[in-house]
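In this supplementary section we document a worked example of the pipeline. Step one takes a protein sequence of length 190 as its only input; no multiple sequence alignment statistics are reported here. Step two produces a three-dimensional model, which step three serialises into structure tokens for compact storage. The input and output of this example are shown verbatim.
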Amino acid sequence: MNLTGIISIAGKPGLFKVVAQGKNNIIVESLEDKKRTPAYSSDRISALDDISIYTTDEDVSLKVIMKTIYDKENGAETISHKDDKKKLENYILEILPNYDQERVYISDVKKIFQWYNLLHKSGELKLAEKEEESETPTAEDSKTEEKVPKKEKKAVTSAPKSKPTTSKAAPKTTASKKVATVKTSTSRGK
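The serialised model returned by step three reads:
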């Protein structure tokens, strides 16, 4: 799963994709309605790529949790974030049995499922899955690389560089520079 460039902005519903960067802001596009708006440095922005969930062992990145949900649901949508609290807790225990129940609140669990469904509807999950498969080398790929002999690099010798001919190129024209002149006052009285 590739969550790079996908962000959440506090106070604005949904997820956004970073489209461009301005001087004092970034331009984001909503994953739901594809409207573009600016996001400023004063906004509380969280990149999904940087988010992780507390567990009793090590923290688990959101990317790993999304991948686990994707595999469990066979690429389909998951349960709604509006389901009851007990159902959501049971589901998160299935995919992440060692999550820290004291530090991970039910509102955080709801966000995971809401974000997963938003990413699924916008097509970001499937697209990232295809890219990951093409970039990740498999065991078969490494076997074929070993069978193919590497070509030896031959040293390439270049002909000696000749001196330029006697014809001279036209001089380059440069933009004129403005030079500030300072007037000095001379004292006339002796």
